[in-house]
Amino acid sequence: MGKGIVLADPRGFCAGVDRAIQTVETILKAAKNSADERPQGLPPVYVRRQIVHNRHVVGDLAAQGAVFVEELDEIPDEAVAAGIPVVFSAHGVSPAVQHEAARRGMHVVDATCPLVSKVHREVLRYVKDGYEIVYIGHRGHDEAVGVVGESPKHVHLIEHADDVSALDFPPESKLVYLSQTTLSIDETRAVIEALKNRFPWIIEPPSSDICYATQNRQTAVKSVAEKSDCVVVVGSANSSNSVRLMEVAEQALAGRGRAWRVDDASELDPAWFEHASSVGVTSGASVPEALVSGVVTALKTMGYEDVSYVTTTKEKMHFVLPAELRRAR
């Protein structure tokens, strides 16, 4: 039997990532068609933070003219006066960032994933109703920073089940938990169990905040790992869902082999595959398919010529562009 590749389906772009990238691309295209209207020396668009957590995507958009900044104070007043659009990334921002943009009169185009925006709205609703909120997320992640920023006094961030012991709420307090969208059901299960044991009256959100794409990709990579001797996950190191895909794959391999994360085919090490007859391949939710194709091509040169697929579900989710861009098209 020949050596082969097992491709996960679904993999790659989710609807929120696709929407965010299209947002920047739409602005770039419009600016290209009206370049003479923009003051000389100013870019067509600014983007606060990485639009999605993938360095290739960011690099490609930067090559087309987008300027990425960490904070709004890096954007000159001249650009603000000229109405140069400022895009907020798919991960969302805190009210403090929104207020700063409004204070300076910036032309903001919000590319926050609708699923992330939903969690922001839930925070505001629960705080208004007098709840303390336990938020399960990764400290420092852009999405978590934005959500906690909605109400820092009432949103309590925890990452692990061990963090629950540090929380202290009286029995009469109204308590609810929410979670970062890029965490799967498996990831949050132990934390939620610990919360319920410590605070039996804590309530669950009305509907799951787990991103459909996160769960679908983890389910798919488990199935792929069961049919593979090792797994390659394409995705950047700062992509929460890509790193977790690698961890899930490693667990599903159950000691039969390793899982590796790479940004692209250039990072593949032939030594990884010396004893593997089948290699599983998947990618994070912010990874262009071209990068997966590059990995597949590289593996074929190593003798992995047969390609098969494991399909666990077919995704049909689609998010429309921000309203002002729909009007402009």
TrEMBL record:
EC number assigned by the record: 1.17.7.4
Gene Ontology MF term list: 4 iron, 4 sulfur cluster binding; 4-hydroxy-3-methylbut-2-enyl diphosphate reductase activity; metal ion binding
UniProt: [4Fe-4S] cluster binding residues: C14, C113, C211
Entry keyword Transmembrane helix: no
Location of the active site: E143
Pfam family, one: LYTB
The protein's enzyme class: oxidoreductase
Domain of life: Bacteria
Sorted UniProt keywords: 4Fe-4S, Iron, Iron-sulfur, Isoprene biosynthesis, Metal-binding, Oxidoreductase
Catalytically driven reaction(s): dimethylallyl diphosphate + 2 oxidized [2Fe-2S]-[ferredoxin] + H2O = (2E)-4-hydroxy-3-methylbut-2-enyl diphosphate + 2 reduced [2Fe-2S]-[ferredoxin] + 2 H(+); isopentenyl diphosphate + 2 oxidized [2Fe-2S]-[ferredoxin] + H2O = (2E)-4-hydroxy-3-methylbut-2-enyl diphosphate + 2 reduced [2Fe-2S]-[ferredoxin] + 2 H(+)
Positions annotated to bind dimethylallyl diphosphate: H53, H91, H141, S239, S240, N241, S286
Residue numbers binding isopentenyl diphosphate: H53, H91, H141, S239, S240, N241, S286
Transmembrane segments: none
CDD domains (alphabetical): lytB_ispH
GO terms classed as biological process: dimethylallyl diphosphate biosynthetic process; isopentenyl diphosphate biosynthetic process, methylerythritol 4-phosphate pathway; terpenoid biosynthetic process
Cofactor binding annotation: Binds 1 [4Fe-4S] cluster per subunit.
Required cofactor(s): [4Fe-4S] cluster
Residues binding (2E)-4-hydroxy-3-methylbut-2-enyl diphosphate: H53, H91, H141, T181, S239, S240, N241, S286
Function as written in the Swiss-Prot or TrEMBL entry: Catalyzes the conversion of 1-hydroxy-2-methyl-2-(E)-butenyl 4-diphosphate (HMBPP) into a mixture of isopentenyl diphosphate (IPP) and dimethylallyl diphosphate (DMAPP). Acts in the terminal step of the DOXP/MEP pathway for isoprenoid precursor biosynthesis.
NCBIfam families in UniProt: ispH_lytB (TIGR00216), PRK01045.1-3 (NF002189)
Recorded family membership: Belongs to the IspH family.
Name of the protein in question: 4-hydroxy-3-methylbut-2-enyl diphosphate reductase
Lineage, opening ranks: Bacteria, Bacillati, Actinomycetota, Actinomycetes, Bifidobacteriales
